[in-house]
Specification:
The chain has about 325 residues and is of the alpha/beta class. The protein has two domains: about 250 residues, TIM Barrel (Alpha-Beta Barrel), CATH 3.20.20; about 70 residues, Non-ribosomal Peptide Synthetase Peptidyl Carrier Protein, Chain A. About 45% of the residues lie in helices and about 15% in strands. The chain has 14 helices and eleven strands. Strands 3-4-6-7-8-9-10-11 form an eight-stranded parallel barrel, surrounded by six helices. The protein has a two-stranded antiparallel ribbon with strand order 1-2. It is globular. The relative contact order is 0.11.
Length: about 325
């Protein structure tokens, strides 16, 4: 069993990573149904929260069926982060996660996200004060370091554990790498194997198949996997991994009926949550993966990602179901 504070999780839990414009309530609900053990919100700006910015406060919406759910915040100003924690607590999440890993320039340029990897002392101070401020378990997501020459993740992990975090997720790339090249899990394993460490260490980056999840568990010995890009338009990834863990064999291919139904439900929930315009717009990125590998599908996909009205998208789903519904795809 793995524990984040008092939260009990199964052996080698699978966590849905916080992803901007992806890990919203509709998508989290689908991933939870398919086996995600912990889900995280999109990352939320502490400055946006304290200014009551609509986009930031909307991301605080969480639902009972998602639990355990973590709300992730980012920022580099201590006062703003502490005020944000007080706002987050009112949404009653199970976990507060601090983003020290986002590599995007507009975040990093303000010293937040992975930008804080240039100032480990500030990272430690911010974390310590947040832990003191809340009764909720605090976790951190970060990267190996700013660049290859400044990787100090073993030391960073010790310092964050010493100030009270309850789990650490590490993306196996530096900020300089962004999302290029291959994730390096060896330094994450070094953190896990450090005899001083006693909190769960979760790996992130390139867990893109059940076989890779097994490798992270059995070869690298980590406590769990945080799944990001592999889940986009593929909420079944969590079920596929767990089936492989249990049987050593791949899960049967997802039928077209299941794919269409998931896409249909996703769009409906997105519209219910964020309205017609954003609901239609922000589910588009999932459709390529929902229907990945389907032959002769380009015309349908084009309609899905160019239609501005949900009625047209739902009509396309019906057409797909009619044309492909009885087919099975590997």
């Amino acid at each position: 069993m793995v524990k984040i504070g008092a939260i009990e999780l199964p052996e080698f839990p699978l966590l849905l990573a916080p992803m901007e414009d992806v890990s919203d309530p509709p998508f989290r609900a689908l991933c939870k149904e398919q086996g995600a053990d912990v889900v995280y919100t999109e990352f939320i700006s502490s400055e946006g929260l304290i200014r009551d910015a609509a986009k930031s406060t909307m991301k605080l919406d969480i639902y009972e069926k998602e639990r355990p759910v973590g709300i992730q915040i980012f920022g580099a100003n201590l006062d703003s982060m502490l005020r944000a924690v007080e706002i987050v607590e009112k949404s009653n999440p199970d976990i507060i996660d601090i983003n020290f890993g986002c590599p995007v320039k507009k975040v990093v340029s303000k010293g937040a996200g992975a930008g804080i990897l240039k100032d480990i002392c500030l990272m430690e101070k911010l974390t310590a004060e947040i832990v003191k401020r809340t009764h909720l378990p605090v976790t951190v997501k970060t990267r190996l370091g700013w660049d290859h020459d400044s990787i100090r993740i073993v030391e960073v992990a010790e310092r964050l554990q010493d100030v009270g975090i309850k789990a650490l997720s590490i993306h196996g790339r530096t900020r300089a790498q962004m999302y290029k090249g291959n994730a390096d899990w060896a330094p994450i394993a070094e953190v896990k194997n450090n005899p001083r460490m006693h909190i769960p260490i979760f790996g992130n980056g390139d867990v893109n198949s059940p076989e890779r999840a097994v490798e992270m568990r059995d070869t690298y010995g980590l406590d769990g996997a945080m799944i990001g890009r592999a889940s986009i338009g593929n909420p079944w990834f969590f079920k596929q991994v767990k089936h492989y863990f249990e049987t050593g064999t791949p899960l049967a291919p997802i039928s077209m009926i299941e794919r269409v139904e998931a896409a249909r439900r996703h769009l409906k929930m997105a519209i219910d949550w964020k309205g017609e315009v954003l609901g239609v717009l922000e589910t588009r990125r999932h459709y390529t993966n929902y229907f990945k590998g389907i032959p002769n599908f380009k015309a349908y996909r084009t309609k899905m990602v160019t239609s501005d009205h949900s009625a047209d998208v739902f009509k396309t789903f019906d057409e797909v179901e009619s044309a492909f519904g009885t087919h099975q795809f590997v």
